[in-house]
Amino acid sequence: xxxxxxxxxxxxxxxxxxxxxxxxxxxxxxxxxxxxxxxxxxxxxxxxxxxxxxxxxxxxxxxxxxxxxxxxxxxxxxxxxxxxxxxxxxxxxxxxxxxxxxxxxxxxxxxxxxxxxxxxxxxxxxxxxxxxxxxxxxx
Length: 139
Description:
Strand order of the largest sheet: 1-2-3-5-4
Structural class: alpha+beta
Shape: globular
Distance between the termini: 40 Å
Number of strands: 5
């Protein structure tokens, strides 16, 4: 399948839809998931089009991993998490819903289960506050 330039993440990158930005560089964009599975749930995407891991370039993957690590370290600190889950799905059968390559960075705490995927919209003011916490932890 070809890349759909009208997917929600492409619209965010173009500025057609809002997002609570956590981090941005020349190649990647990190922002809060609007239906988080946990506090601090952040998405990392490449700025260049790629449907998923299977058609992304090595450069896109390297840039995303660099940003994912940066965000994960900051999110772990910002939310006093016990660990981090990094999740990435490829294709509808694997649970991919938005067909623009993305990585989920999710802070985790011992004994606390993740919420269900795409189940509840979070309040914008909480997303903004969580993004600010992560940005502050990045320094």
